[in-house]
Amino acid sequence: MTTARVLVILGTLAIANAPAHADYADDAAVGLKMAKRTFDRIRRGIALGPYVGYAGGVDLDGHGSQGISFGLGLYLFEIPTVFDIQEVLAEKIRARVKQRVKDILASGGAAPTDLREIAMQVANDVKQEIMGPIQPKTLEDPLLKVIVEGVALLSPGGFQLRIGAAKGLGPVSLGLYTAFQRSNTNNVWFLGSELSLHLTPIGKMRTPVLDLFARGEYGYDRVNHGDSPARHPIVLTVGLRALVDVL
């Protein structure tokens, strides 16, 4: 049996055998409280609704653009619940034990042979974190993002239609997007990647999302310009989306 598995078992037993708090005297009340807090955490991890945004960019030829976007977005965040307790417990025990052993060895001591006390401490911390009230963070770790938007181009004029999805990578998300642009009788198709940071500044179960992003796109302009071949603009864009959670 691996050390990690032993630690998880110790932590799980610690939670199961921990003395009951006065508020948990009645099993039915405990069940209802845990169910509500689990629902609250699941709800905190979902933001769905309309958004408005602004972005400005420039291509490698020096042509600038800016526009106002309107769209619908779905944001999923990694909010741990009781369903994740074993995974969270294993991760935290592993990190805590590693740090504790490192501190002991750095001070000239011997590595501990009994990890039960560390497991108990971590188990109690995880219990409070997952089964306790929500502690909202301004930077929740993203899990998934999907957007569909239209953009009114202030310059050079025209509009864009864009759709894309992104996967969370720690505190940011990285995604793939495609767009169609109609401007000055030209039709341009874009394919690009977007790096974004999501802020959840207020609220507990429901929160607006401020999406700060930087995007790079490669375009294909179907219209020939005189005797020149079709243009392939590379556009770099930064912007902000503000989503209102209406779920």
Give an overview in words.
The protein has an eight-stranded antiparallel beta barrel. By secondary structure, the chain is an alpha+beta fold. The protein starts with a helix and ends with a strand. The protein has helices at 3-17, 27-44, 85-106, 116-131, and strands at 46-59, 64-77, 142-155, 159-169, 172-183, 186-199, 209-221, 234-243. The longest helix has 22 residues, at 85-106. Strand 5 (172-183) and strand 6 form a beta hairpin. It has two domains: 3-42 and 80-131, no CATH class; 47-78 and 138-243. It is built from four helices and eight strands; from the N terminus they run ααββααββββββ.
What order do the helices and strands follow?
HHEEHHEEEEEE
Radius of gyration: 25 Å
The percent range for helix content is 25-40%
> What amount of the residues lies in strands?
35-45%
Termini separation comes to 45 Å
* Overall number of structural domains: 2
Strands of the widest sheet, in order across it, are 1-2-3-4-5-6-7-8
Give me the count of strands: 8
Average of per-residue pLDDT values: 79
Would you identify the regions where 5 or more consecutive residues have pLDDT less than 50?
3-10, 12-16, 20-24
Overall form: elongated
Distinct helical segment count: 4
Major β-sheet annotation:
8 strands, antiparallel, barrel
Structural class: alpha+beta
